[in-house]
């Protein structure tokens, strides 16, 4: 037919964006630097970040000597573990989120029970199902490891004198109760410093520049870059438009950083019995390690006052924090309990809401079934995949070289990068 070429031309034309859509795209890119965290005086101290990087890969912080942060937050798996539920010393009841971009969150964990990255890190180390460590042993491990202690001392000053220390001292144990108040205080101080170093490292793990960012950056260039497929561009239009995802997933992190109950049913059907934000809120309010507590370096700062200003309502019962969708293509399985294997499964849920549990009458009611065609769902997924960022600089994917350090570091022996890190000075 004479019109066939014309039709092909029309079909090949890239989707046109409205002024409104262009504005929304710009509001989601680029990812800025992580907000300052004055509650940790060493948050952006490069020496603390090197110490934190060593500790992140160090199984010596666990009771069994074989679990490190990197067991569940694996650099080559987008700093998560590809498991539905994380497995350390035991198996917990939550999915491990990525650490990339975590420094942008106001509330950490799916239920927001921590308000800084340094407070967050205290939990997995002592969680009996994760690393099952004890703060007393962590401090002892530093004292016993010259590479770690020399760096610790040059950043934070002297380590406490713990002689004699009973193993396994963490709050709630007899070993902890046997310590004097001043010993407990000294251990808490050093343990918090360890966690502040971990934060300094984690702050360097930004989500990375994605095709979506390159596309948005090209708006200001004479020639728009074709890094985003037409499907991904249509997916973006659906995401910020008809699909309504933008109600909760907006801004550079593609998250409102707050909590919602999507009505995901319990595994055995019916409403979920995980209280989510309901319990996380109370736990944070009761913690002495809050950003406005005695271990904070800036208890009066606006960041520190968030916990005191936070409000909770009945709608927060069973609510979970909106995850960032940066790098979402590599962070599956999905949702707080890892119930969905693929992005397709997540979209199938939003598309029909068929599996949504009947919820308590306080739950918010934002979600409506999308009722999209398979093509529209494929477009949405293409957009989500375009949010995958370039990997972090290679030295951040490995522990720093530690000649006299603990022998069992969780490095990736197959990686050629490891050799390359050998010569990186420790002060980088
Ligand atoms: C056994 C697996 C496991 C280990 C080991 C582990 N984590 Fe996690 N991590 C998780 C899980 C699961 C969650 C989510 C838990 C929740 O929300 O209740 C999480 C959450 C986090 C978060 C919050 C991310 C967010 O978006 O809120 C950060 C940051 C983090 N971990 C860092 C660390 C650090 C640092 C260590 C080592 C000190 C560590 N993790 C050890 C499994 C693990
Ligand atoms: C009412 C707020 C809200 C809306 C609207 C919303 N989401 Fe979500 N989204 C969430 C929350 C909260 C979670 C985590 C829920 C949980 O784990 O219980 C989530 C989880 C996800 C996940 C899983 C990410 C991960 O790391 O586990 C994806 C993918 C996702 N949403 C995509 C979308 C898309 C696409 C849309 C639009 C069709 C959308 N969301 C609409 C709040 C929302």
Descriptive notes:
- This protein is 35% helix and 1% strand.
- The protein is mainly alpha-helical.
- It folds into two domains: 151 residues, Cytochrome c-like domain (Cytochrome Bc1 Complex, Chain D, domain 2, Orthogonal Bundle); 161 residues, Cytochrome c-like domain (Cytochrome Bc1 Complex, Chain D, domain 2, Orthogonal Bundle).
- The chain has a two-stranded antiparallel ribbon.
- It starts with a helix and ends in a 7-residue tail after the last helix.
- The C terminus is likely disordered.
- The site of one heme C has 29 residues, from helix 4, helix 5 and helix 9.
- One heme C binds next to helix 4, helix 5 and helix 9.
Low-confidence stretches: 407-428
End-to-end C-alpha gap: 65 Å
Bound molecules: heme C
Q: Please give the count of helices.
A: 16
How many beta-strand elements? 2
CATH class of the largest domain, named Mainly Alpha
Mean pLDDT: 90
- The SS-based structural class is mainly alpha
Output the CATH topology of the largest domain. Cytochrome Bc1 Complex, Chain D, domain 2
Q: Name the helicity range.
A: 25-40%
Query: CATH homologous superfamily name of the largest domain?
Result: Cytochrome c-like domain
Radius of gyration: 23 Å
Q: Give me the side-by-side strand order of the main sheet.
A: 1-2
Compute the number of structural domains: 2
CATH architecture of the largest domain: Orthogonal Bundle
Give the SSE string: HHHHHHHHHHHEHHEHHH
What is the 3D shape?
globular
- Largest sheet geometry: 2 strands, antiparallel
